[in-house]
Amino acid sequence: MTAATPMDVLLSRASTDRLVAPAPSAAQLEQILAAGLRAPDHGRLRPWRYVVVEGDARPLFAQKVVDSMLRLDPQTPEFNLTKRRTRFATMPMTIALGMHLRPDHKIPLWEQEMTVAAGAMNVLNALHTLGFGGIWVSGPITQDPVLAAELGFAAPHRLAGFIFAGTPDGTPHPAPARPDPQAFSANWQGAPVTFAADKD
Ligand SMILES: Cc1cc2nc3c(=O)[nH]c(=O)nc-3n(C[C@H](O)[C@H](O)[C@H](O)COP(=O)(O)O)c2cc1C
Fold first, then answer.
1. DSSP class of residue 162?
2. How far apart are alpha carbons 27 and 198 in whole angstroms?
3. Are the beta carbons of 155 and 145 closer than 8 angstroms?
4. Looking at ligand 1, which atom is closest to the CA of residue 15?
5. 15 lines ligand 1 (CB under 6 A)
6. In a domain, 76, yes or no
7. Does 200 have pLDDT greater than 80?
8. How many domains does the chain divide into?
9. What is the DSSP string of 90-136?
């Protein structure tokens, strides 16, 4: 069997939350986060921040997540609270994606946020490259300034979501069919382009 090329690896990544131990080791995590820091970064503002939650810290953080849900909606059904608590308490590793933002800087905020997003994509690809699985999740709690501050991101800093990371549990994960790249690209030749992806 021929070894997978870097392009094979890139094209085979798919998100999964069917994750079990082990999470990446400390050495692997260092590499994974180093990949995050290779993202393009206008102005070298270095807005990426990663907060790793694992081991015994997980139920503590899961409680903060539940507190956040209730803060945002005191009527949140018990079922939803339990589901989210279980998820955050049992995922092998959660990497909170912090955005260290500088609203007054000449580099616009949206560019700073995209740098964090580009870093997150590199983290997902690095996880996959090392044989781990991951998924980027968000939800209303991502917008909760109190939860962000509890992680270390007091305003104007914010959260961009969370990456769950671990070992894929082995159950077949039906990779969603990927769209045809041709439908999402076009050659510009002087007039506005259209995309097959936009035709119903
Ligand atoms: C900013 C952002 C937030 C997301 N939040 C969620 C989420 O809260 N829940 C979820 O199931 N998927 C969420 N997703 C989508 C998944 O990360 C993932 O992309 C999706 O399940 C499709 O899988 P794929 O990456 O294999 O295409 C989010 C993606 C991004 C970029």
1. E
2. 44
3. yes
4. 26
5. yes
6. yes
7. no
8. 1
9. HSSEEEEEEE---TTSSS-HHHHHHHHHHHHHHHHHHHHHTT-EEEE
The answer to whether residues 112 and 48 touch, using CB atoms and an 8 Å cutoff, is: no
Q: Is the CB of 133 under 6 A from ligand 1?
A: no
- Tell which one of 136, 141, 164 to mutate to probe ligand 1, the residue whose CB is within 8 A of the most ligand atoms: 136
Which residues fall within 8 angstroms of residue 64, CB to CB, at 6 or more apart? 147, 150
Give the model's pLDDT for residue 173. Answer: 67
Question: Ligand 1 centre from 106 Cα, in Å?
Answer: 30
Query: Around Cβ 52, how many Cβ atoms within 10 Å?
Result: 17
Helices 26-36 and 109-129: angle between axes, nearest 10 degrees:
140
Does the C-beta of 139 come closer than 6 Å to ligand 1? yes
Indicate which CATH number applies to the domain containing 117: 3.40.109.10
Closest by CA position to 31, among listed 165, 153, 136, 173: 165
Would residue 80 count as lying in a domain? yes
What's the pLDDT band for 177 if we cut at 50, 70, 90? confident
The range of the structural domain enclosing residue 64 comes to: 25-168
